[in-house]
Design a protein that fits this description.
By secondary structure, this protein is an all-alpha fold. It is 73% helix and 0% strand. It is built from 8 helices and no strands. The mean pLDDT is 82.
């Protein structure tokens, strides 16, 4: 219901704007000036509505997005175009003799401006209410999603039982990757791929390396004994 009201109010604002501007244009003396301004008055909102309609159509048919309200925007564009053309033709009397004053010259600009202001206020109020309702709905959905996530999520592991904290300490003790010898990486890749035999535990360089990494090995053993990670 809210979107239907928004549609009606948008159409009313657009047509009242055209009528108010037509009443002002009708008081101009030169006919060609009235024609040029009336065309601009009609085409600017048409271009805006057509752009929104085209964007909604691309989102609906090219991207497959639901809820784009393409047909509502298309109907609004058509209704506005027909209404604007009728107001301009009736107010400016296109095709009549130049000596005949346009009917829009007698239209009450003040009353039309007041009606336009009231329509704009109602339109903004409706838009604000719809936006507020959408925000409240999103807040409820966010709360329900959070409650659902908490209900299915595993319990949080205490820090004393969390191996991830100890692994993080081990990584920090290892130092940056740039400080490591690339020869060990190459030797590990060759051993893992089966191209060469594995590490020899009696190799002096390996034993020296493991001795240097004793603090890291101690932390890794502590992490392996933790019940969770």
């Amino acid at each position: 219901m809210g979107y239907i009201l928004l549609w009606i109010e948008s159409l009313a604002v657009s047509l009242l704007l055209v009528a108010t501007l037509t009443a002002c244009i009708g008081r101009l003396r030169r006919r060609w000036v009235r024609v040029v301004l009336s065309v601009l008055v009609m085409l600017v909102p048409v271009a805006a509505y057509a752009g929104l309609t085209g964007l909604a159509g691309a989102m609906k048919f090219a991207q497959g997005w639901p809820g784009t309200r393409f047909y509502q925007l298309l109907t609004l564009t058509m209704f506005y175009t027909v209404g604007a053309v009728w107001i301009l033709c009736r107010g400016l009397r296109w095709g009549d003799d130049e000596r005949i004053s346009p009917a829009a010259r007698t239209w009450p600009r003040g009353k039309l401006a007041i009606a336009l202001g009231v329509a704009v206020a109602l339109h903004l109020t409706t838009f604000w209410n719809l936006d507020l309702a959408a925000r409240q709905w999103l807040a409820v959905q966010r709360a329900e999603a959070g409650a659902l996530a908490l209900s299915v999520a595993p319990p949080r592991i205490p820090d004393r039982d969390n191996a991830a904290l100890v692994y993080q300490q081990a990584v920090e003790v290892m130092g940056p990757a740039e400080s490591w010898n690339d020869a060990w990486d190459q030797k590990w890749e060759e051993s893992a791929s089966g191209k060469k035999p594995g590490f020899d535990p009696q190799e002096p360089k390996l034993r020296e390396f493991l001795k240097q990494q004793t603090p890291v090995l101690i932390l890794l053993r502590q992490a392996a004994q933790k019940p969770g990670c």
